[in-house]
Amino acid sequence: MSLITILLLALALAMDAFAVSVSSGISMTRLHIRHAVRMAAFFGIFQAAMPVAGWGLGRFAADLIQAVDHWVAFGLLSIIGIKMIYESVFIEEKSDSGNEPMTLPVLFLLAVATSIDAAAVGVSLSVLQVPIIRPAVIIGIVTFIISLAGVWIGQTFGDFFEGKIEITGGLVLIGIGLKILIQHLFFA
């Protein structure tokens, strides 16, 4: 898998974490860099770990689905992309849940919730027999940077970008799935 594809994948996966970071930045009365770094670290670590977990699960089942691996990758990435677009367009977030976004239990739950999609991507990478370490590290670093920026953007600019970013992330995931499918069907 090329570096460009991995970076696009990482950016697409980071969009949920970015949206939550922007929302958290909006809800903070005063931005402290340690809070932004803590949130970004949680998101980055979980986004790096979940593809590894999914990859391990996928390696276990790889022999069973090897003949249709490109369809599985396309299907998973498309489902995740469509889900991101749907949630961005049709699901309204509750503006203030009363939870402080910087407490460890809330950060843990947010990090898990925003990285579930990354586990499915890990399964896709395993069936495509892509080594996982490089993509996982890149996904984690990109998510950390994007989340750190998201908190600042949320604090500074409010929620102007939030929905648009998730739509873009969903479209990128669908595009990567299509690329995998087309490469396998026509160029393999």
Shape: globular
Sequence stretches where pLDDT stays below 50 over 5 or more residues: 94-99
**Helix and strand string, N-terminal first?**
HHHHHH
- Termini separation comes to 14 Å
Counted by DSSP, the helix tally is: 6
On the 0 to 100 scale, the average pLDDT is 83
Proportion of beta-strand residues: under 5%
Rounded Rg: 17 Å
- In total, how many beta strands? 0
Number of domains: 1
Largest sheet, if any?
none
Helix/strand class:
mainly alpha
Helix content: over 70%
Describe the secondary-structure layout.
Layout (H helix, E strand, L loop, with lengths): L2 H25 L5 H33 L3 H22 L13 H24 L5 H25 L4 H26 L1
Helix pairs in contact: 1-2, 1-4, 1-5, 1-6, 2-4, 2-5, 3-4, 3-6
Structural account:
This protein is mainly alpha-helical. The chain has one domain (3-89, 103-187). Helices cover 82% and strands 0% of the residues. The chain has six helices and no strands. It has helices at 3-27, 33-65, 69-90, 104-127, 133-157, 162-187. Helix 1 (3-27) runs parallel beside helix 5, helix 1 (3-27) packs antiparallel against helix 6 and helix 3 (69-90) packs antiparallel against helix 4. The longest helix has 33 residues, at 33-65. The radius of gyration is 17 Å and the shape is globular. The two termini are 14 Å apart.
